């Protein structure tokens, strides 16, 4: 069994043994091909993702060398065609690996299962999924093209899964432990409505209603000063519920299933998520 890991620095683990994939640029090429999940990636796209606006004098030759050395690494470490098949396809390359061997795929499967499971079943599934992340995704890929146009979509997937995890924890009464986590996340992602809702609710359930209202006022100020917008309707609705001390706020099964916690618009992270780029 080979484990291909992109949720952090790139790693290849074969029967518990780490395989050295070479210098950072070569690992970056491998990371790009892994993210394509078996689809061909053109040399031009790899060049843009790898070097951005500053490619070497002969990027095609550089890529051929990296691919050749990767194939050699696979052979020397006993990786057969069942483990990895790196093919030249047209003007690019395609890497196929065993089903479920990529940590990103396992993360998506676990979080999908958790979202549809009862809360007590979902919690360990979410925890197993987040344990797959070992740090920032693929630090070997440092080009602005990758960091600004590809990476945000994976950050969005991770954040949405985290928010689903928080919802499940709120439904089982874990609001006390959530407050410090959510304070940190809302600082990092100040315009993410759902996280603000979850923080306000957690604070209120801890008997800290005044602090929950302060979060609302701070959010309204951020949206006004930075975006020229009023606070989102979901937050305004929650403020009204807090001001009237609505019993629904402490009714776990009723409140978290309300549309208030199901935003009707895409929620932004710190940067807009681009849908115009992919790795393949």
TrEMBL record:
<dbReference type="Pfam" id="PF03704">
    <property type="entry name" value="BTAD"/>
</dbReference>
<dbReference type="InterPro" id="IPR011990">
    <property type="entry name" value="TPR-like_helical_dom_sf"/>
</dbReference>
<keyword id="KW-0805">Transcription regulation</keyword>
<dbReference type="InterPro" id="IPR036388">
    <property type="entry name" value="WH-like_DNA-bd_sf"/>
</dbReference>
<dbReference type="InterPro" id="IPR016032">
    <property type="entry name" value="Sig_transdc_resp-reg_C-effctor"/>
</dbReference>
<dbReference type="GO" id="GO:0006355">
    <property type="term" value="P:regulation of DNA-templated transcription"/>
</dbReference>
<feature type="domain" description="OmpR/PhoB-type">
    <location>
        <begin position="1"/>
        <end position="97"/>
    </location>
</feature>
<feature type="DNA-binding region" description="OmpR/PhoB-type">
    <location>
        <begin position="1"/>
        <end position="97"/>
    </location>
</feature>
<dbReference type="InterPro" id="IPR001867">
    <property type="entry name" value="OmpR/PhoB-type_DNA-bd"/>
</dbReference>
<comment type="similarity">
    <text>Belongs to the AfsR/DnrI/RedD regulatory family.</text>
</comment>
<keyword id="KW-0238">DNA-binding</keyword>
<dbReference type="GO" id="GO:0003677">
    <property type="term" value="F:DNA binding"/>
</dbReference>
<keyword id="KW-0804">Transcription</keyword>
<keyword id="KW-0902">Two-component regulatory system</keyword>
<dbReference type="InterPro" id="IPR051677">
    <property type="entry name" value="AfsR-DnrI-RedD_regulator"/>
</dbReference>
<dbReference type="InterPro" id="IPR005158">
    <property type="entry name" value="BTAD"/>
</dbReference>
<dbReference type="Pfam" id="PF00486">
    <property type="entry name" value="Trans_reg_C"/>
</dbReference>
<dbReference type="GO" id="GO:0000160">
    <property type="term" value="P:phosphorelay signal transduction system"/>
</dbReference>
<protein>
    <recommendedName>
        <fullName>OmpR/PhoB-type domain-containing protein</fullName>
    </recommendedName>
</protein>
